[in-house]
Amino acid sequence: MHNLTSLLTGFWSFICGLWVTLVNTVRPPVTFQYPEKYYVPLEGFRGYPALVVDPETGETKCNGCQACARACPLGVIHIETAQREDKKRYPVEWRLEFGRCMVCNLCVEACPFGALTMSPEYEFAEYRPEDLVYTLGNLKLPPEGFEVRRLDGSTVRTGLAGGGRG
Ligand code: SF4
Ligand code: SF4
What is the pTM of this model? Predict the structure, then answer.
């Protein structure tokens, strides 16, 4: 009797397994072939800290106050500033060691001027760690977002700057 029960239990498990396989064979896939298809990040996605550009001036909103650098637990933000004739300060260098960044968002929350936001970009794989050091030139997040080129030659626009999302 015990053997018969075991046999029936095993057979039932076998049927259940087959059923799961069958159902998932006909179900539409939830994955897609990257990079033929491009994932558009949702609002709040954290790529890397990026500088928001003021659409009116075309310049970054950052005044080099260093609040973000002080808030960063890993000390991966380095800023050098200069002073304009009207006494306002501006960053002449804004460097991020992204290879060490843990995308915690604390720098974004610390910025009092909405000058920093987490970029929606996620294609930043590099062969050399030093290529993951971003500077002022490539940290600016354009207000109109990024244009990303796909393998088929088409482009998709992603990452509209939110400006200081906390
Ligand atoms: S996201 Fe976190 S670890 Fe990265 S730079 Fe900002 S505060 Fe530092
Ligand atoms: S906290 Fe904001 S304004 Fe201050 S240095 Fe950082 S990004 Fe610039």
Answer: 0.75
